[in-house]
Structures are given as structure tokens and as C-alpha cells.
Amino acid sequence: MPYKDKEKRREAGRVTMRRWREANPWLTGFNSQRSRAQRRGIEWLLSFEDWCAIWEASGKWKQRGKLAGQYVMARFGDQGAYVAGNVRICPTEENVIEAQLGRQCNHETRQRMALAARLREKRKREARHGTSFLK
Question: Which of 6, 94, 105, 118 could lock onto 109 through a cystine, CB 3.0 to 4.6 A?
């Protein structure tokens, strides 16, 4: 065992994985999306080759991500499996809107969303004025 210190060994493993992910962005992206789909209980029927071909055909690989202005691979109607013919590359905002269509929030969820919105506004004011309203 080259490292006696557990933390040094852990950090060396993190560095190795980070380097591997940087050297293999396509495989990293594929594995990440497939894993998230499986955790959400969504069937995944895309091969790595199919997944790559869809992204390449879209021309949006470099803009891929989950933030506003980026692109995601989404299922039509947010239903069914991830399979060729049932997925498309679209802006993140479009995918979020589609996922929310027809969804009903209960009273508790609406209260949480309202609280989150108020906290976001407070943080924006703090950033503008350099003061904290959350004390």
C-alpha cells in the first residue's frame, strides 16, 4: 500500500478519478446521465454509441449542462424510456417547463417554494448592498 495515511490515499484516488473524467468526457457524461436516470427509476435503453450520435448530431455537446442557457437530453413528454426516438436535445429551460406542465403542487410545496423565492430575493439584496438580512 503506497499510502499509509487514509486521507492521502483518498485524495490520490480523487485526483486519479478527476484525471480520468477529464480524459474521457463523453464516457463520463454517458455514465452520469444513465446513472441519474436509473436512480430516478427511468429505463435506459441507449447504447453509448447511440447517445454519442444524438449529441454529435445536435452540435450542442460543448453547451451541455443543467444550467440556464445550456442543453440537455430530454425525453418527449418527459415520459417513457431513454431510447433512440424518444429523446431530443433541448435547452434546459424548455425541459424544466415541460416537466412542470400539469404538475400539481400541494400546499406545503407551494409554501416551501415561496420561502425559497423570498430567500433568493434577500440574498440578491445582500449582494447588492453588502449587508446581511438573514441575521
Answer: 105
